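Next comes one such specimen:
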Amino acid sequence: MYKKLSVLIPVYNEKNTIEKCLNAVLNAKIGDLKLEVIISDNNSYDGTKEILSKINNEKVKILIRDDNKGKGANIKNALKEATGDLILFQDADLEYSPEDYLTLLEPFYKFNADVVYGSRLTRAKTTAIVGFPNYIGNQILTFITNFLFNKIFTDIATGYKVFKKEIIDNIEITSNGFEIEPEITAKISKDNKIKIFEVPISINSRGYNEGKKVRWWHFFSYIYHLVKWRFIN
């Protein structure tokens, strides 16, 4: 049914982790699927681009943006080049482990899923203990999403999302920043024909001193865009 997995890695100033991340992705177990890795760099200035320029692997395509318009623009840039039957979003900081790929892929084979989210909050797998405000913020966002769209998500802010190519291709994504996350979630949640599943994943969260880029104000942006896309087609 599925022949190829496209792993999209949006990158911005990740010189300390991008090589480890890429190696983990290339060595991940994905069954009989062929692997395609698309790295889109958002005009890094810390040496990441120089590291990427030295990568020579037929499975890996490197895209370098001339300007930085945000994570959403970076993901859209990678999406344009994706040819896999399944599309997986992978952050470059290794908070999320490619060892979970088989878990993420299973619902596509077992339940004919259209979209799979990896939940960090089921506690079914190893979970780094993070600060209480981050946890409460995620719980609030998840509750609002479930209320607005009549769903039962447990972790709406997860970075691990996998889509059938035709599903993600049919979403008109307009966001260029972190608001791409609530936009995608809202648009798939509004379509009751799309079969969404969650699976447990492990998480090794990093701190702001280690380069974490999400900030407190993204919480309010997330809420605004959830509400916006609930009522706008």
Notes: The first strand starts at residue 4 and ends at 11. The CA atoms of residues 32 and 42 lie 31 Å apart.
